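TICKET: design request
STATUS: open
ATTACHED STRUCTURE:
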């Protein structure tokens, strides 16, 4: 015998299931659309610059003139992208290396202390990282004699404070009036030392060709927008 009440309750259950299914499906299908609107996650890139890597540099002056026993601060700019053997860029052109020109073995040598990476997407430098590296030793000298002209030596140069004092004592302050002076502690004492002397030897450094930095230890960092 046909049970009307059973048929009625079964039909109601099917209708309820159909209605609930119709409300669930749109929520499921809309999930990918919501996911697509989330901001993309930046990829974290591990960069390792091996020991022995050579970093080409440039400077905003043609040369740097220092005394053989003088230490001066110097900030150099990375001249070209430094790349790994697979072509991946390790250090961007425009990054900055901060350090010192220091006396060594009868000459002067750039000792790198910090690297500030340039991020082209952000159009700025990052915080500085500590690095260890040096340039070749530069032993190129020029003699400054009392009363002589130094136009060719000083033209386009940055001058260490000690070298500036020596030159001023030998040939007058006008020779260095318009030049950039690096450092400068104790200039009066240094200048007085040269007042009774006839000549002095200075070291002449051409940063673009002399001061490429060779890393003496590995340098590693994590980049998210390099």
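STATUS: resolved
RESOLUTION: sequence designed for all positions
ATTACHED SEQUENCE:
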């Amino acid at each position: 015998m046909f049970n009307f009440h059973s048929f009625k309750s079964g039909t109601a259950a099917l209708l309820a299931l159909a209605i609930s299914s119709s409300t669930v499906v749109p929520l499921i299908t809309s999930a990918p659309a919501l996911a697509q609107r989330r901001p993309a996650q930046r990829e974290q890139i591990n960069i390792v610059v091996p020991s022995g890597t050579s970093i080409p540099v440039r400077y905003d002056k043609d040369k740097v003139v220092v005394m053989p026993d003088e230490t001066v601060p110097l900030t150099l700019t990375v001249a070209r992208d430094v790349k790994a053997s697979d072509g991946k860029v390790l250090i961007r052109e425009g990054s900055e290396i901060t350090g010192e020109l220091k006396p060594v073995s009868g000459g002067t040598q750039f000792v790198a202390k910090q690297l500030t990476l340039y991020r082209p997407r952000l159009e700025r430098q990052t915080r500085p990282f500590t690095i260890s590296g040096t340039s070749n030793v530069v032993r190129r000298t020029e003699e400054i004699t009392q009363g002589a002209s130094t136009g060719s030596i000083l033209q386009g140069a940055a001058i260490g404070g000690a070298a500036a004092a020596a030159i001023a004592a030998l040939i007058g302050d006008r020779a260095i009036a318009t030049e950039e002076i690096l450092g400068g502690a104790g200039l009066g004492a240094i200048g007085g030392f040269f007042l009774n002397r006839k000549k002095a030897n200075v070291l002449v450094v051409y940063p673009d060709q002399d001061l490429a930095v060779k890393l003496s230890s590995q340098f590693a960092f994590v980049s998210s927008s390099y």
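CLOSING REMARK: The chain has two domains: 45-60+70-138+211-223, 141-205. The chain has five helices and 16 strands.
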